[in-house]
Amino acid sequence: MPHVPKPPQSAKPPTPLRSAPAESDSRETLPNKTLPADALPSDALPSDALPVDALPVGALSDEAPQLDSTHDTMVGFDQESVDSTNLPDIDHEFSMQELFDAELREAIRSVPLPGDEEKLPRVEILGADGQHAALMRIDHPVKLRVRGSLGDYAFAYNSQTVIKVFGNVGHGVAEGMSSGSIRVRGHAGHGAGTAMTGGTLGIYGSAGDRTGGAMRGGGLFVRGDVGNDVGLGALAGTIVIGGDAGNNLGNPLSNVAVFIRGKAASLTPGVTEAPLRKKQEVQLGLLLISAGIRGDATDFRRIVPIAKLAAENAARGEVVPNWR
Fold first, then answer.
1. For 119, what's the count of Cα atoms within 13 Å in the CB-facing half-sphere?
2. Which among 229, 231, 228 has a CA at the least distance from the CA of 220?
3. Neighbour-count burial for 270-281, b at 16+ CB within 10 Å, e otherwise
4. CB distance 297 to 288 below 8 Å
5. 3-class SS at 148?
6. By C-alpha distance, which of 140, 128, 145, 138 is closest to 93?
7. Cβ atoms within 10 A of the Cβ of 316, count?
8. pTM of the entire structure?
9. Pick the residue with more confidence: 38 or 226?
10. What's the sign of the alpha-carbon dihedral 261, 266, 268, 274?
């Protein structure tokens, strides 16, 4: 992405923290920008991926719109998008156009925490315009709301922070994430959630290749389609796909739980599709709740190593014998 270099840090005085103005009605509504083409390559997403605003309300449900599993969440996102002139809950506001990366991270970490642990301070981030390596290594329990799109490795190694993004993200979003939650209103590039060890990553558009690669824990939800090699090298965690998947879905040598509602172009050799059992329905239901989705777990199938499925069936036979 073309980038206009900022002046050296030594030539720029530190920018003090700024609290949000008391009369938020005077603030202008910011547009929801998209990444330039060179910041998010066209092959980062499935070729038939629709813009997230073009996705039908029933994209995850064959029922009427009022029963759609993402209806409430998407309405909530959209309502916050159009209601940006009336956000009394914002406690602090920072601009990515005015602060260097290190300054912005320090400003977020300096936000004071209230005595009530249940009420996290809300921070509004303005000026997002496809910046790479943005907001990495944030380790502070605040609610972060980003308006605009970000480039590669956004929120890598996130911990504790609860994040909403009203735009797209590039490759490697939430890489190495250990806790907290990240919800992306748009699409993501390749390698979303790579090497996650905890937390929840929700993408409400589509995602590219190697989604959930090398996962070690946590939960990853993609509302739309995903690319090839999803879960490559993953050892643990949960991956939920609301749409279709590309080639080589699953990993025969891992314990990661993969659930899919649509179809996969091909499965990795050594894995197979299987219906959900009660244990998996509960596991999937919990992740859908964490991602802000009211979905029906029975609409999904799981992708499981053949050897693991055989072991499950053998153990189940001892408890529930087949008398026929």
1. 6
2. 231
3. ebebbebeeebb
4. yes
5. strand
6. 145
7. 12
8. 0.73
9. 226
10. positive
